[in-house]
Structures are given as C-alpha cells and as structure tokens.
Amino acid sequence: MGNNYTVALNLAPTTPSWLQAIGAQAMYLGLDLRGGVHFLLEVDIDAAVKQAEERYNDDLRLALREAKIHYQNVSKDNGFIKVTLKEANDKSELLALLSKEFRGLSVTEPEAAEQVWLKISESDAREIKKSAVAQNMTTLRNRVNELGVAEPVIQQQGENRIVVQLPGVQDTSRAKEILGTTATLEYRLVDTEHDVQQAVAGHPPIGSRLYYEKNGNPILLDKRIIITGDQIVDSASSSDDDGRPSVSISLNGIGASKMGKLTQVSIGKPMAVVFIEYKNETRVVNGEKVRHKEKVEKVISVATIQGVFSKRFQTTGLDSPQEARNLALLLRAGALAAPVDIVEERTVGPSLGQDNIDTGMMSFFVGFALVVFFMAVYYKLFGMIANVALAFNVVIVVAILSMLQATLTLPGIAGIILTVGMSVDANVLIFERIKEEINNGNTPQSSIFSGYDKAFATILDSHFTNLVVAVVLFAFGTGSVKGFAVTLIIGILSSMFTAITGTRMIINWIYGDKRVEKLSI
Amino acid sequence: MKTTTINFIGNRHIALIFSGLLSLASIISLATQGLHMGIDFTGGTLIEVGYAQAADLNVLRQKLNAEGFEDATVQNFGTAKDVLIRLKLQEGVSSADLSTRVLDTINKDVAQPASLRRVEFVGPQVGDDLAEDGFLALIYSSLAILAYIAWRFEWKFSLGAIIATFHDVIVTLGLFSILGLEFDLTVLAAVLALIGYSLNDTIVVYDRIRENFRALRDKSTEEIMNISVNVTLSRTIMTSLTVLLVLVSLFFLGGATIHNFSLVLLFGVFFGTYSSIFIASPAALMLGISPADLMIPVKDNSDIAHLP
Fold it and tell me: Which one of A312, A384, A518, B9 has the lowest number of neighbouring Cβ atoms within 10 Å?
C-alpha cells in the first residue's frame, strides 16, 4: 500500500468467534485500560452570544437601510445595541420592524426620544448558547470522524462542556490541534486603486482593509468578502503542478454562483486568499483565568484571475503538506460555532493501559485466592460453599458489566476486587450466627434455619449503607471513579443474591432432609 | 473462635482518650499541613513517561530547567524506569499544549526517547468543580446514610454511627496529611467507599445491640452492649480480614496508580474495625441510649414511667 498508509489493528476485538456468534460483545474498557485520550472541552458560550450580537448589529443596519429608516448611529455598547434615529418620528416604524424581524431582541426605550436600546433577550441568549454547544458537538464529531478514530465518545457534560474520548489515539498534539482550532479561508479581491502606504500610515480607504502577506508585505483588500469558509462543502489536501502543498476546494451552489459571477467580470484582477485562525489560550494571570483569543489573519496567496471558475478550484500558499491537510480537514468538518478550550486532558499510553490490565488481573487473582483459602480454612465445608458463591458472584458481576456495556476502568477492577473481600461478609454474618445458635444448644438444622433468618435483616441494613455510598459516588463521580461506583453497586447487589440464596441452596443440597449430628463449620 | 467476654464498654475511656488524641493529631495536621492535593483538585499538569533503563532524574531536571520549566517536579513513580513530572498551573502560560512541549523537551537529543505513559492536565476551573463535586458527594452520602440509620434505628444510634465514621475519615485523612500522600479523585472515591464500609461494620454491632435490648431485659445497657460487641467480635474481625486480604493484594500488586487508593482503604478498614468495636457503642451510650429508646411503643404508660 506504500508508505503513506498505517494499518491500525490495535482496537480490533479479540472476542472468540463462538462468542461473537451468540451476540456477545467484549467488555467495554475505559481509556485507562485501553489507552487513549480524554478531553474535556469548554465552549465559550458567552462568545457565541457576543457573535450573535455582532450579527444583529450588522443585520439591523442592513434592515434599516432596506426599510428606508434613517439612522444616525447603530452601535454596540455594554451588551446593548443602541440605535439612534435621525428623526424621533421614525420610531414607530422601527419598532414595527423590530417586532417583525428581530424577535430575539428585547427593546428598551430610554429618555432620549430618538433612541432605542436593544438587548438579546434571556430566552434568545439561552437558545444561542444551547445551539452553539450543539453545533460544536456536530463539528467536533465531524472532525473526530475525519481523524479516523474507532469508537469515539462525544458527549455533552453540564451546560457548556463537551467530553471527547478518543480510544487508541496517542498523538495528542495533532488531536488537540484538530479539536481546538478554528481555521477558515476567505476570498477577497485586492484593492489596486488605493495607495497601500497611506493605509499603513493609518488612513485606510473606505471600503478596504489593510492585511499583511506572509512575508510581511502590506496589502489592501476589498472589505466585501467573495466567499467564506461556510460556503465550502468539500476540500482535500493536494499539491499543485509545481508540487507545492495546496487545498482543493468545492463550493456550494451559492458560493459557486458568487464566485462565477465575480470571476467573469474580474479577469485580470488579483484575488487574495486570507487564512484565518482563531487561537484560544487560557492563561492564568494573578490567579485569575484569562481567556486570550487571538485572531490570526494572513494572506496566504495572491493570484491574478486567469479565467472564469466557480465550483472547484485550488488554493496554494500553505507552509507544509501538514498545514494543507489540517486546513482541508477543518474546512470539511465545518467551523466551530463558538471557541472551545481544552480544560482537562487525560492521556493514557497503550503500554500503561496494558500494564493496568495486567496488574489489575494479578491483584484480583491473588486477592481472590487469599480469600478463598482463608474462608476454607476457617469455615471448612461452609467456607467452601461460600467460595462457590463468591466465584459465582464474580461471574455475575462481570456478566452484568458486560451486558450493560458499562465501562471497565482500573478503579472498576479495584471495585471488583473489593467486592470479593466484602461479599463474603454476608456469609460470615450467617455462619457466625449459625455457630452461635449451635453454641446455644440448638440442633444443626434449626441453627441453619435461624442463622439465615436472623442474619438477613443485619445483612440488609449493613449492605444498604455501602449501596447508598456507591450510588452517591456514581452520581458525583467522573470518568474512572464512575467505573468504580458501577462495579461496587453491581457487586453489592449480586453478592446479596449469591451469598444468601446461593449458599442456602447448596447447604440444602448437602444437609437438607437429613439427620445431621454436626456441621462442618 | 469462642465468644469472648472482654469488657469493652467498661474500659471505654481508654479507647476514647486514644481516639481523641488520634483525632486531635489528625485535625492539627490537616489544619497546619493540610492535604497534599493532587492535580485533580489544584489544576496542573502531570506527565508520566517510561524509559527502557533506569532514568537519570537530574538530567531530566536540568533539561526542563533550561527550557523554563523551573517549577517542574521530577520523581520516580513505582519503578526507577518510570518518571513522573508535575507542573503547576503557570502564570501567563497557556496550559493546553504544555504536555507536548515538556515531552519535546525531555526527548530532545536523546537516543532512546521516553515513551509517554500518561498525561493528565486539569484546568483551574475543572479542578474547582471536581473539588466541589467531591465535597458534595461527601455531604450527600453522609446525609443519606444518616437519614437511613435514623429511620431504621434511632437518632442516638445514627449520631453514634456518624461519630464513629467521622472518626475513621478524620484519622485516615490525618494519616494521609501526616505522611504527605497525594490526595486525588480516586483517593476521594476510596474515602467515600470507606464511609460505607465503616458504617457497615458499625451497623452490624448496633443491630445486635438493638436485638439484645429487646431480648435481654434483665441486663443493664452497658452489659447488653458488652455482650453484643463480644458476640459480633469474630464476625467483625473476620470480615475485616477478608477485606484486608484483598486490599493488601491490591496494594502490592495493583500498580502505582492505585497505591494511594488501596492505602486509604487499608487505613480505613483498620480504623473502621477499631471504631465499630471501641467507639460506636460507647458513643451511643454517652448519647444516652437505653433499651427504652428501641422498645416497640406500648400503649401502657407504665412502661416508660421509670425513665429518668
């Protein structure tokens, strides 16, 4: 297949075929056992609201112009969009327009008659935040799919956080780059009519904006954008005829017709491609969390329009094939609706994952063997019966975990091991009670009966406290701790069954309907 | 095991003084030294790398220092081949790509690069949230259990159980504080599990006291408690032993990541067993529990007429 391919089989299931045939699935292993990355991303939902405000601001101007309502000023101020009309008489018209087209804005009328203050309403803001998170989830899912990760987990956590789990991924820097960045392209015409130097001196012409090329040269570009990244439906990294890294772009219908129209009338004119990247960094300054958002805009290529093109074309000017690949991926997967920040990362390498499984299994078997030995020595035949129940308990716990497809983590394994130690507790309670009854001069049969009978309430009470704690742990725990809670809950419940009902059944088999002189306890 | 006749209740003052001193020492250590909080709660970055041979920590420190990671702590983890690097949340430095930069730094100019075993980065906000959630979990589980015992038993018992459990948690945390062991999320989970376990032991004893309050009417409260603790003694010890067995196995064989987890439970089970024998019943006694508290209410008032 050549050198450009890596075949990864590390996540292929090793379930035997006969088990697969009956629909059995492998245990779902947590990242601490299989290796992989866990990210917790925080969506800057306030930024989403700010962006919406910006949009409203622009749309409002446009709408006012279209409705021929003359205004002096539309500006953003402290969470408000303040509209100052030329004439106070137009206010009713403005209000009508607002109630028709801008329902998301709540209106305040200050004392100045020609002014209206607008604010994004609570409910609208909530909706914006919600959809920003939802859209980010979709985008992240697309991006993760582009990365080609098997069995990724992408879940919302709380109001504004998203969990991304990528099993088997070790190259975290690339994963971070892909998940966290927002990169897009804009296409603009170059303004050749005005003097660049004047703009550099601080007097940019109306209708144009000053940009810088990669080599640092200033360049004036038309403020109107021909197309933005939103109109790109597909993109792939490639290289142009000279072997330079490039990105091939496919546009949607609107973008294609815009591009087609423009190139028709602009043959011979230069067009620039602006690469925009938002870099988010959270820094701690004086103990305070400060979000540092950087918008990096650079003109990556300027080319003269040679002929008419619309739907498909290539853009060059990228630094490396890697950059081309990342950009193509980001363009394909769509933009993030609001910036995201990685607020938590947990990566486990594959070697540690395997080690965790090995040590977990080892301590399980040794712990199990110790308990079995101890019970057999101390309670003799009854101890052996308890051991059979204990073995069944472990099988049941593992089976239920597998059936629920609950995630098994290292603390989860620890939970199973702990269950082994604790689940004989019910048997200890019963057996001690039986011994007591025998010491009190009761017959073996009635001792067995009253032993089980009297111990039952105690078992219920004492196990319930463990259960309560495990449930609370499950409710508040995150990640691997949840795995611990799950095994504990299942272990406690199933041990009550095996240790009471299971042992009773075996004891009845052995001692039931017989004249028994002495119990092996 | 023959049923013992040790006078636990009569000699309760010895245990109470011992526990009092132990708790006091723990509280002092917790107040002055505090707990060595892991990055789960403080925020920060933790990187575990593995080498084929024993790693030279000084070389690693120098390299990290040279690149400006002055506050990095470098230490072995489990074996000499594994190295743990910790970094605090740094002022003015973006933390998201810190782990990548550290790994690049230590792998620069080396023939055999370290393999990445684990990276944990927790942002400040997440750390606060995890700490808050953990604290809430402690409160809620305590409340839920308090309510359950109050419902199943009687408030004096339930308060006694809480005192005994609180004692176990304080002493275990105190030991962690004195020994300077790291307190992280899994350790917190172990503390919660310990609450459940410690209560489990206590409840078995209380259960028997309640039963005997009703059965042995001619004996004093103190005597009944002594009998109850003694008859449940073998059970208490047996159960603790089986749990200790698996915990020892987990501690020695479960790997370094789970060390502190099993240590909390080892301490906890030990103290939990101790407290359910020596503390729980005296506590209920001192709160003034008497057989009358547990009698099934009888309409005849003469039954409670002898109450103080």
Answer: A518
Tell me the two tokens of residue B83. Answer: 């190295």
Core vs surface per residue A185-220: b (16+ CB within 10 A) or e: bbbbbbbeeeebeebeeeebbeebbbbeeeeeeebb
Q: Do B119 and A341 touch (CB under 8 A)?
A: no
Measure CA of the first residue to CA of the last residue in chain A; give whole Å: 68
Distance between B265 CA and the closest CA of chain A, angstroms: 10
Helix (H) or strand (E) holding A155: strand A153-157
**How far apart are the C-alpha atoms of B266 and B194, rounded to whole Å?**
9
Q: Is B27 exposed, middle or buried (0-12, 13-18, 19+ CB in 10 A)?
A: middle
B162: closest CA among B128, B203, B132, B118?
B203
Query: How far are the Cα atoms of A47, A134, A143 from residue A161, in angstroms, in the given order?
Result: 14, 11, 17
| Fold adopted by A181-347 | Gyrase A; domain 2 (3.30.1360)
Question: B211 to chain A, minimum CA–CA distance in Å?
Answer: 10
Q: Are B175 and B303 in contact (CB under 8 A)?
A: no
- Partners of residue B48 in chain A, C-beta under 8 Å: 352
Per-window interface: A 3-42 vs B, CB < 8 A:
32, 40, 42
Domain range summary for chain A, segments of one domain joined by +: 46-122, 181-347, 350-511
Please state, in angstroms and as integers, the Cα–Cα distance from residue A429 to each residue in A281, A360, A420, A451, following that order. Answer: 58, 28, 15, 9
- Overall residue count recorded for chain A in this entry: 521
CA distance B104 to B119: 13
* CATH architecture for residues B44-122: 2-Layer Sandwich (3.30)
User: Are A76 and A155 contacting, i.e. CB atoms less than 8 angstroms apart?
Assistant: no
List CB contacts of B2: < 8 A, sequence separation 6 or more.
Answer: none
CATH 3.30.300 fits A46-122, yes or no: no
Q: Which fold has domain A350-511?
A: Multidrug efflux transporter AcrB transmembrane fold (1.20.1640)
How much is the pLDDT for A314?
83
Rounded CA-CA distance B241/A39 in Å is 40
> Which residues have CB under 8 Å from A183's CB, separation 6+?
A275, A276, A277, A278, A326, A327, A330, A331
Point out the residue among A180, A362, A476 whose CB comes nearest to the CB of B136: A476
> Residue A101 and residue A330: Cα distance in Å, rounded?
33
Contact between B242 and A425 (Cβ < 8 Å): yes
Tell me if A46-122 shares its fold with A181-347: yes
pLDDT tens digits for range B7-36: 888 888 899 999 999 999 999 999 999 999
- List, for residues A266-298, the tens digit of each pLDDT value: 888 888 888 887 766 666 566 555 666 677 788
3-state DSSP assignment of residue A270: strand
Q: Which two tokens stand for residue A36?
A: 């992989």
Write the pLDDT tens digit of every residue in A317-349.
777 888 788 878 877 877 777 878 888 888 888
Q: Is residue A405 left, alpha or beta, with left meaning phi > 0 and alpha meaning psi from -120 to 50?
A: left
Q: In the A/B pair of chains, how many CB contacts fall below 8 A?
A: 251
From chain A residues 426-445, the ones with a CB under 8 A of any chain B CB are 428-429, 432, 436, 439
The domain locations on chain B are 12-37+127-294, 44-122
Comparing C-alpha atoms, which of B119, B60, B70 is closest to residue B93? B70
CA distances (Å), origin A123, targets A57, A82, A104, B117? 18, 20, 8, 46
